[in-house]
Design brief:
The protein is α/β, with parallel strands linked by helices and 231 residues long. The chain has helices at 46-53, 76-86, 102-111, 120-130, 146-158, 176-193, 204-207; strands at residues 4-15, 18-30, 35-39, 61-66, 69-70, 87-90, 164-168, 196-200, 212-217, 220-224. 39% of the residues are buried. It binds adenosine-5'-diphosphate (ADP) and magnesium ion.
């Protein structure tokens, strides 16, 4: 079954009586374990599309089907379960809470998990080790570099064992080398855990790492013909 099906999705924002079509009839089928990159100019609708996929922004029309179920027909409980347990979000900035340690930041999403993450501390240790920060559990975000903070954000996105990871320019403010490290880490997660990865990136070089490449322009989506190179 298609993991995620996006059907004729549109989002219009209204400012006073003026409508802005941020997403314009986007359709897309995504299989489990796909790695998709989305590029496009600022304002082309990438963040809006990710927010709708992630269950945090209702579309104006169209549907998101997750394993065949229409996400925006879920009641509030099921929708929050979808957000908390099926989706892992990596935002443009690492968005860690500065007054919490790395460990505490990682535990935050588990509070909202409905399937109950068992052995939280063990899971936490495993993911911190995987992103190469096993020794930073009790550090505060301000004691970490930008790349390390991003690694914490990736580990945090994994905590509730999601099926889909959405990354909104997760390497945007990092230097090139760190950027590639983070990309390699995301690729590894995609490959080893078969987690569907949808990554918005401003960098066409990084976008090439994806098996499927898409471009957004004024709310419309087009597939970029791949060069055949896969993960
Ligand atoms: N909350 C909002 N209210 C009104 N307009 C918005 C809002 N969010 C985004 N927009 C507009 O929608 C369009 C798409 O924005 P966005 O999805 O953030 O694009 P991108 O992530 O590609 O830069 C832009 O024209 C932006 O100004
Ligand atoms: Mg954006």
């Amino acid at each position: 079954m298609t993991h995620l099906e996006i059907k004729e999705l549109s989002k219009v924002y209204f400012i006073e009586d003026k409508g802005i079509k941020a997403v314009d009839r986007v359709s897309l089928r995504i299989d489990k374990g796909d790695f998709i990159s989305i590029i496009g100019h600022s304002g082309s609708g990438k963040t809006t599309l990710l927010s709708i996929i992630g269950g945090i922004l209702r579309p104006s029309s169209g549907n998101i089907l997750f394993n065949g179920d229409d996400v925006y027909r879920f009641d509030e409980n099921r929708l929050s379960e979808y957000r908390a347990d099926r989706i892992g979000y990596i935002f443009q900035f690492a968005s860690l809470l500065p007054v919490l340690t790395v460990r505490e930041n990682l535990l935050l999403p588990t509070i909202f998990s409905t399937n109950g993450v068992h052995n939280k501390e063990k899971v936490l240790d495993e993911y911190l080790g995987m992103v190469g920060l096993g020794d930073k559990k009790n550090a505060y975000p301000s004691q970490l570099s930008g790349g390390q903070q991003r690694r914490v954000a990736i580990a945090r996105a994994l905590m509730n064992d999601p099926e889909i990871i959405l990354g909104d320019e997760p390497t945007g403010d990092l230097d090139e080398e760190t950027e590639q490290d983070i990309m390699d880490l995301l690729k590894k997660i995609n490959l080893e855990r078969n987690i569907t990865l949808i990554l918005v990136t401003h960098d066409t070089g990084l976008a090439k790492d994806a098996a499927r490449r898409l471009r957004m322009d004024h709310g419309k989506m087009e597939e970029i013909r791949g060069n055949g190179r896969n993960k």
